[in-house]
Amino acid sequence: MARTDYLNDPNAPPANILVPATSAIVTDKRGRILLHRRADNGLWGLPGGSMEIGESAKEAIIREVKEETGLAVEPRYIVGIYSNPRHVIAFSDGEVRQEFSICFACKIIGGRLQVSEESTELRFFKQKDLPLSEMHESIRQRIGDYQQHKKQAYFS
């Protein structure tokens, strides 16, 4: 299913659903950030996805990272809560989602890196070498918030 992200775009379609979700900034022992090239839009992004009924946000991010990357992670802290109503995601099936996303900083505790059906590539990037021009602005913001090492999470 194809996806298009809109941020502060007056031509964006109106949202027709609100979906709670999680995303993860997964770093290795060298401080490199894990990104996956998304199969649905070709951009680099953070692992993550929608919460399922009956699970917590913590359980959702652990599950999503495992499904998308093969890695087991431990959430360490919240980088931010992203709920900008001017950021909508339109899917080819007609869903237009306003996402409510909690971004966690996560530590790898096991597993083996492997591409899923949601990705075409997985790669750890040094923070100075991130492919910023090949990712959506909302992902750049999350990474930027992480890099600032704030004592308080970002809220929108």
Can you tell me about this structure?
Strands 1, 2, 5, 6, 7, 8 and 10 form a 7-stranded mixed beta sheet that branches. The model has no long low-confidence stretch (mean pLDDT 94). 15% of the residues lie in helices and 44% in strands. The protein has helices at residues 57-69, 137-147; strands at residues 3-7, 17-27, 33-38, 44-45, 48-50, 71-82, 87-91, 96-111, 119-125, 154-155. The relative contact order is 0.28. The chain is of the alpha+beta class. It has one domain: Nucleoside Triphosphate Pyrophosphohydrolase, CATH 3.90.79.10.
Anisotropy-based shape:
globular
| Average pLDDT number | 94
Task: Please compute the radius of gyration using only Cα atoms.
Answer: 15 Å
Please identify the structural class as seen in this structure. Answer: alpha+beta
The largest sheet, given as strand count, sense and whether it forms a barrel, is:
7 strands, mixed
Q: Could you list the spans in which at least 5 consecutive residues all have pLDDT below 50?
A: none
CATH superfamily: Nucleoside Triphosphate Pyrophosphohydrolase
Total domain modules: 1
By oligomeric state, this entry counts as single chain
Summarize the structure.
This protein is of the alpha+beta class and 156 residues long.
